[in-house]
Amino acid sequence: MRHAKSGDLVRLYCAGRLQDGREFDLSPGRKPMEIIIGHGDLLAALEHALIGMVAGERKQVIVASGMGYGPYREDLVQVVARDHFPKGIEPKVGLRLRVPTEGYEVIHATVVKVTDSEITMDQNHPLAGEDAQFEVTLLEIVDF
Q1: What CATH number does domain 74-122 carry, 3.30.43.10, 3.90.600.10, 2.40.10.330, 3.40.630.40?
Q2: What pTM value is reported for the model?
Q3: How far is residue 99's CA from residue 119's CA, in Å, rounded to a whole number?
């Protein structure tokens, strides 16, 4: 049997659960993901867990917030004047945005509060500060 190693292209399913029971799926619509182990396509802890697995194997992986999506940082929550919000986009709570910066980076932000004059946006990853348990199923080690 072939065991997965760093550099292998693999197909997998990956689903997660937070400590409060909320579930999230990294394989939307239960479509397999394809990644190259070690290329940073998943959390490092998840990629590391794939090493040594064989096709058809399932594994539970617990990832602490510090090793996952990082701590929740209050300094990443910003209030902007409503007139600085992009024209043609209706701000509403839960809206996810890709915001370009002066350095040509793109920041992802979620609208968390809207008033008549201000919009509060949170740049933290939606799972920041959360410990998570993942179920990873390695479907195939792909020859390429």
Answers
A1: 2.40.10.330
A2: 0.73
A3: 14
